[in-house]
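Annex B. Sample input.
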Amino acid sequence: MRSPIDDYLERVLSDCRDDDGGDVATGNRELEQADPSSFGIALATIDGTVYTAGDADHEFSIQSIGKVPAYALALRDRGLEEVLERVDTEPSGDAFNEISLEAETGRPRNALINAGAVAVHGMIDGTDATDRTDRIIDLVSTLAGRRVEVDTDVHRAELASDDHNTALAYLLRSAGKLDCEPDEVVDGYAAQSSIKVSCRDLAVMGSVLANGGLSTGDDERLLEGWITRHVLSVMATCGMYDGSGSWMATVGIPAKSGVSGAILGVLPGQVGLAVWSPQLDAQGNSVRGVAVFERLSRDMELHMMHVAPTGRPALRSVTEHDGTTVLELQGDVRFAGAEIVASRACEGFDTGAVVLDLTHVRVMDDAARRLIGEVARRLGDDYDVRIEDPNDLMDPDDAANPDT
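Annex B, continued. Sample output.
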């Protein structure tokens, strides 16, 4: 069975393709060559399943999304207290490249604007820019599940147009917030921004963050839990620059954008999301990317304030008896819980009949209800399907006639 989530993402891709406003980033000769029609989406769950649509495997430079792993490394190397002495955690309310520091402390407002990111890069342990960049590459590779590398053409183009960041570095040095030579830090920061990734890479990286820093494959600890919590907190309040407040109210997914046209989103406990399309709005965020996140948040009820009261897994058991497979659900079922059922259904069953037992489900939201109904309908092509729904959680048509 093909997952309904694959088809849903393809539909979202098609619907949002008409959002063709905005412009490709300028100021970097390599980014200026991006194809405006490029468009990819990826969704990765904390159980290790990845769904994609469009150009999800096309590589592009990570740009400002690289601030996230760099921040995590600085926190690991220096500890929270020392990092906070040099970079605050407050929204700036200004553009991402504003040349400004806190008047009282000399700190950048947060780690996800350029001034803060330059200061953060200087706090990563390493003997020089190459050493620090290599450590960031290693962490991105670990979180993405494959080896990544710097796009040398983009790196050279970044350095050719980096007067602004050089000014920030010297300003930080004069304020006592940068120990390294400004030119060296700017070189490393440019390389950090030039790491090549895809939507799939970012979504998988996001799923690890959503899983509290644990690998989605075997629960190996890839990033400390306190670091994950802190980084996601700053992403929630500062990740979309001066549009972060409206983003959190309407989309409700901690996120970080980059001027190559990518947006990384992390919904704790559920999924990592990534969208890439190069045309940007006035705030430097992908026009289509914003549209996709708004759609996903609305359709699948992925707003972080829409949470299940209990932490029990949605799929209680899968058993076989007298030629029938019974999938027993429980608790409060949201999108992530329904996705687990869909993923299991895609593996197929050795019996001729399937029962979706909702007896122990307390609450099911609309997104989960639609997904479970579609799973039942598709299973009906190959199995005798029945939904046990004593609490009338499903729409009557879905529960009574899943194969129609």
